Automatic annotation (TrEMBL):
Protein name, per record: Peroxidase
Organism ancestry: Eukaryota, Viridiplantae, Streptophyta, Embryophyta, Tracheophyta
Positions that bind substrate: 169
Chain sites annotated for binding heme b: 199
Domain of life according to the entry: Eukaryota
């Protein structure tokens, strides 16, 4: 009995050690990013993105909000790995062609910036990072905060329109549904209120909110009573019934400047989207909206937005050769011996193996 106990103890020690090693391996395969990932391999990368974005926003101010939205859509559907940028193929309908994404803009901007980066540093900067940096610079250029975004993302090689609906909040989502959705990505109710502040720049198609203006209660010509009446009248003047194409500022106060105008609008019942107005229906999100609406300076919002943006930018990141560096953002790289990533143990496989050894530990302890 003593010998068996001794043997069991030894087995336990070995099993624990092996399980610990495998769990450590799991940790080592976790995706990560770092500040200044291209400092040595492409030191001019972030300057190139900023220069190009400055020119883009100067010519088309509305694209700042569009690129910010494009990045958030990418992150919430499959992670921040550039899948939203991939084109559909003969055998696959990509995310960008989902009906829910047909209003997205800015793909050509990312392609143009990527071309400049490829000319300077071929095969170095991922499309996922181009999109992250372009979104970051959209905020900075429109007088928002500078956000020290970590880089080093790799690009995914899969994009499916079928993934969009399950990973996109419904246009009429309740505040409870929105908080639950954000919670799936370890984002809080505060993150929801803060990131909604991105609507201080950019535009939305009439189709995104027309139900708030016409036939809201299935009765002819009845509008959403939670919208300010004068604002409703203004919106009806911009969006006739059935108009799906016209673009309207998300922030009626200052739609091209990253400031507190959005929160002041929402607090005054002038949140354009149903999800904007929903922020007033939860104690925590309403408190944040009210605080920022009454603030005399944007310092707190700017600091909060930078933190929440960075949190979002880490969702589902690929690294450690789990992805690739696309040469063209709209298509995966062609397969070739030189383009194949080194074979590594994926985190999922490592977790399964580690679980097996944890089972051995449990068995050894029983023995």
């Amino acid at each position: 009995i003593i010998e068996m106990a001794s043997g069991s103890a030894a087995l336990s020690v070995v099993a624990v050690a092996m399980a610990a090693a495998l769990l450590a391996l799991c940790g080592s395969t976790e995706a990560h990013t770092q500040f200044g990932a291209y400092n040595k391999t492409c030191p001019q990368a972030e300057d190139i993105v900023f220069k190009e974005m400055t020119a883009v926003v100067a010519k088309s101010p509305g694209l700042a909000g569009s690129l910010l939205r494009l990045f958030s859509v990418d992150c919430f559907v499959g992670g921040c790995e550039g899948s939203i940028l991939l084109d559909s193929t003969t055998n696959n309908t990509a995310e960008k062609d989902s009906p829910l994404n047909k209003g997205l803009r800015g793909y050509d901007v990312i392609d143009s910036i990527k071309a400049k980066l490829e000319a300077a540093c071929p095969g170095v900067v991922s499309c996922a990072d181009v999109l992250a940096l372009a979104a970051r610079d959209s905020v900075r250029i429109t007088k928002g905060p500078y956000i020290p975004v970590p880089t080093g993302r790799e690009d995914g090689n899969r994009s499916s329109a079928a993934d969009v609906t399950p990973n996109t909040p419904k246009p009429d989502a309740s505040i409870t549904g929105l908080i639950t959705f954000f919670g799936k990505f370890n984002l809080t109710a505060k993150d929801l209120a803060v990131l909604s502040g991105a609507h201080t720049i950019g535009k939305a198609h009439c189709s995104a909110f027309s139900t708030r203006l016409y036939n809201f209660t299935a009765s002819n010509n009845i509008s959403d009573p939670t919208l300010d009446a004068n604002y409703t009248a203004t919106l009806r003047g911009q969006c006739a019934a059935g108009d799906l194409a016209t673009l309207v500022d998300l922030d009626p106060n200052s739609g091209t400047t990253f400031d507190l105008g959005y929160y002041r609008g929402v607090a005054a019942s002038m949140g354009l989207l149903s999800t904007d107005g929903a922020l007033l229906l939860n104690e925590d999100t309403r408190a944040y909206v009210t605080c920022q609406a009454n603030a005399t300076a944007p310092a707190e919002f700017f600091a909060d937005f930078a933190a929440s943006f960075i949190n979002m930018s880490k969702i589902g990141v690929l690294s450690h050769h789990k992805g690739q560096i696309r040469r063209h953002c709209s298509a995966v790289n062609p397969l070739s011996a030189s383009s194949q990533a080194p074979v590594t143990m994926g985190a999922h496989a490592a977790v399964l193996l580690a679980s097996s050894f944890v089972s051995i530990v449990a068995l050894a302890l029983v023995l």
